[in-house]
């Protein structure tokens, strides 16, 4: 209980350096405008370089600060939680920026769906962790810790934190563009909204189905009964990784917003994330194949079920599943 409360306090307090710095910057800027005075060189640089400032804050507050805390706690749990929070902080950061220009309704819509996305992902995280703060770190980080041994203390800075800066700032580029260009809403905005919302819905139900499957197997194990080898129902009947599909739809939906505003180049962040997720997909599947109790069933699942894009099984397989 004590550790859980300590981790909760750390998670709440850890973004404060960036938040307080940004609020000080905004206060100084508005004070200079009100009194018609010049800004200090530091604040002037901040006004002129919003995206660079976001990277600087991320580097010191997340890369350095989170990394130092991880060595004290011997766990990198916090970066997993903050995947759900940082995009929310960024969308407000860009919306509040002194020189921001944007369509009011587009901004509010994107802020709302970003909050919904964050709540969905946060709920999935805490449900998986049994509502504990920092109970464990991502299994991929634990594997890397074992692989690199004594070198992990410095490799983790780049593998866990610097890499996350590239992903999160790159993925969130559309949030920057949305608050950089003032253009009336059009049909492409509504298409982007639909893609984002569909992605959130698919990810939510896929995660819920996976959680129910894992919970059921835990109960079967406690009763000494055979485990269910694979999840092959709901969204998981049509795709081996529907939760990843939903998450990708969310990020590519944001790209549509930016593309509609004349900045289609922002697709690079979503593309890099998709390529990285392809590698993570391979890691997850290799992990499944190493488990003797489900390796054979999972090989069959691989042969009959689409890896990402939901699709129907071969007719013979579908009839067999229906009969079972």
From TrEMBL:
Residue spans crossing the bilayer: 7-31, 51-69, 81-99, 105-122, 152-178, 190-210, 222-239, 251-284
GO cellular component, one term: membrane
Name the record gives this protein: Steroid 5-alpha reductase C-terminal domain-containing protein
InterPro entries linked to this entry: UstE-like (IPR010721)
Pfam families membership: DUF1295
Keywords annotated in UniProt: Membrane, Transmembrane, Transmembrane helix
Gene3D superfamilies on file: 1.20.120.1630
The keyword Isomerase appears for this protein: no
Keyword Iron assigned: no
Signal peptide span: none
Species of the source: Erythroxylum novogranatense
């Amino acid at each position: 209980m004590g550790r859980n409360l300590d981790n909760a306090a750390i998670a709440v307090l850890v973004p404060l350096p960036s938040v307080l710095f940004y609020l000080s910057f905004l206060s100084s800027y508005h004070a200079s405008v009100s009194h018609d005075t010049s800004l200090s060189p530091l604040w002037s640089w901040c006004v002129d370089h919003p995206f660079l400032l976001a990277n600087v804050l991320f580097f010191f507050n997340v890369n350095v600060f989170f990394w130092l805390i991880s060595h004290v706690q011997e766990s990198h749990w916090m970066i997993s939680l903050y995947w759900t929070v940082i995009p929310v902080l960024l969308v407000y950061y860009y919306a509040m920026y002194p020189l921001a220009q944007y369509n009011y309704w587009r901004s509010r819509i994107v802020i709302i769906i970003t909050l919904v996305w964050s709540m969905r992902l946060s709920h999935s995280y805490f449900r998986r962790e049994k509502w504990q703060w920092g109970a464990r770190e991502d299994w991929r980080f634990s594997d890397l810790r074992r692989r690199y041994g004594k070198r992990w203390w410095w490799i983790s800075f780049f593998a866990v934190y610097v890499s996350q800066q590239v992903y999160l700032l790159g993925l969130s580029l559309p949030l920057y563009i949305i608050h950089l260009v003032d253009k009336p809403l059009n049909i492409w905005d509504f298409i982007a909204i639909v893609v984002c919302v569909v992605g959130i819905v698919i990810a939510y139900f896929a995660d819920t189905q996976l959680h129910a499957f894992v919970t059921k197997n835990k109960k079967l194990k406690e009763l000494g009964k055979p485990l269910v080898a694979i999840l092959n129902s709901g969204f998981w009947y049509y795709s081996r990784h529907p939760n990843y599909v939903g998450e990708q739809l969310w990020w590519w939906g944001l790209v549509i917003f930016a593309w509609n505003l004349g900045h289609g180049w922002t697709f690079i962040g979503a593309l890099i994330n998709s390529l990285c997720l392809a590698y993570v997909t391979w890691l997850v599947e290799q992990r499944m194949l190493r488990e003797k109790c489900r390796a054979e069933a999972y090989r069959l699942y691989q042969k009959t079920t689409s890896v990402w894009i939901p699709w129907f099984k071969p007719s013979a397989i579908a009839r067999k599943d229906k009969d079972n």
